[in-house]
Amino acid sequence: MRAQGGLFLAVEGIDGSGKSGIVQHLAARLRAHGRDVVVTREPGGTPEGEAIRGLVLAGADEAWDPMAELLLMTAARVQHVRRVIAPALEAGSVVLSDRYAGSTLAYQGTGRGLSESFIRALHAEATGDLWPDLTLILDLDAATGLARSRRRLTGSAIDEGRFESLDLAFHERIRQSFRAQAARDPARHAVIDASGTPEQVQARALAALEPLLAAAR
Fold first, then answer.
1. 194 to each of 19, 85, 201, how far by Cα in Å?
2. Which residues form the Thymidylate kinase-like domain (predicted)?
3. I want to staple 64 with a disulfide (CB 3.0 to 4.6 A). Which of 12, 69, 103, 160 is the partner?
4. What is this structure's pTM?
């Protein structure tokens, strides 16, 4: 059960689109306006989810069969929803997640070729069909995003480059999937132009979020 004021927001987009920075900026602005904000991510959000993150984002791409990859992502989401997202919503908090089920539709569905209807049915069964009130999709040229993400991984000690090892065509499919999700359900999605300066992208994201926040006040 969701308490009054509880909101579930997700930020999605291709690798390198700037999701993490936008999540932190939005969280800071919401807290400045007196909202209790829970910042989380997928895969991850719980100890179990973080362990799964280490499994599915590292190593060679052929390490996991696409169906196994989907089931691992879903297992992480069950823990995430039940132990983090649902309790926070019941407390009236704003949950701000860096990725959620939209990424599963994009990466394991459009990217890997698994059935969207199966993914949606599995999600409904596993999470009680919990979807964000609003998903912000950071839209960026796939080549630009992939180059950014590969530079970030090269400059860090984090072994999370399994998807970045895939070709540009894969990432183009991911971008188009996110855009298609927004077109299919525009009331719950906002596509944000992720090109330009960080300040410009932040302003666009805040503007897209404002109508939902106004309605929740």
1. 9, 26, 6
2. 11-203
3. 69
4. 0.92
